[in-house]
Amino acid sequence: MRDLSDYSQPLTDLFDQPKNTEEWEKYKLSKEQVEFFHENGYVSGIKLLDEDQINVLKAALDEVADPQHPMHHLFHEFHSNESSDPNKVLFHSLGHWRIHPAFHDVIWNPAFLMAASQLLGDKSVRFWHDQLFCKPARHGGNVAWHQDYSYWTRTVKMQHLTCWCGLDDATDANGCLNYIPGSHRWGLLDKPALAGEMDGLKTMLNPEQLASFNPVSVPLKAGYATFHHPLMVHGSFANTSDYSRRAFVLNVFADGTVSDSDEPLLQGVPVIPKGEKMDGKFFPLIFKHQEP
C-alpha cells in the first residue's frame, strides 16, 4: 500500500492520454460553451466518463468509503455523515486520490483537463483537492447554498474552478446540483455550514440578490460533469428517491496561485508559507498550457 500523491502522472490505463496537439483538440469545449460559463457562472453536460470508467470508480468508492481501509489515514477529511442528523446522511471526504489508483488517475482525464484549462482562461492547471459527495436513497441530506471559494480564501489570487461529476444519474428527486445563474458576480459571501440549513446563505444577501435568487437545477446522466466558477452560489437538496446519488468533485486552480496562510492548507499537508507558490506533490501541475 502506498501514498499515491507521490506520483504526479497516471498510474493505470483507465484514461487514454493524448500524444499530440491534434488528439487534445477533440476534448475542447466550444466557444459557445466557454461564453455560457463566463455569462452564467457554470457550464454543464460535459461527458467525462464512459460506462466502464463509471463502474471502476464506483467500485473504488466502495473501497475507500470503508473507515477500516488500511490507508484511511491519508484522507484530509472523512465524514461518514457530515450532517448532524442520522436521517439526513451526507457522506463527504477529501483526499481519496491518495488512496485508490482510479481516483488518482481521474485527475488526469484529458476531457477534464482540457475543459479546466479553457475555463480558467487557457492557463496551466494545478490540482487543489478532490471530494466525494454521496447521498443514500431516501435519506440523503442536502448541501447548503454556498460558494466554494468562501472555504478556500487561504489561497490567492482567486483563479479556481470546480468540476462535479456524477457516478449515478443525478435528478431533482435524488438531489442534483442547483445553481443561481449570475451569482458569480455577487462577490465573496460568508460561508455557511456545508451540511447545515439549506437557506443559511440567504440571510447574508441584499434585497437585489434575493430578488434574483432563482435556482436552476442541473440533472445529469452518470459520467457527465458540470463546471462552475469559485463564487457561483450552488447547493443540492435532499435525496427523497429510491436511488443513490454518488458524485466526485475535482477542484483546481491556475498555476501561479499562492498560499495565503501559515497554517496547513489541508490536514496532513506540510505548510506552504504565506506568499509562496502552491506546488509540490500535493498540488501537482496536471496540465501545461501550450501557447499556439
From TrEMBL:
Keywords: Dioxygenase, Oxidoreductase. Its cofactor is Fe(2+). The keyword Oxidoreductase applies. Pfam families: PhyH. The keyword Oxidoreductase applies. InterPro entries: Phytyl_CoA_dOase-like. It comes from the Bacteria. GO terms for molecular function: dioxygenase activity. This is Phytanoyl-CoA dioxygenase family protein. It comes from Algoriphagus pacificus.
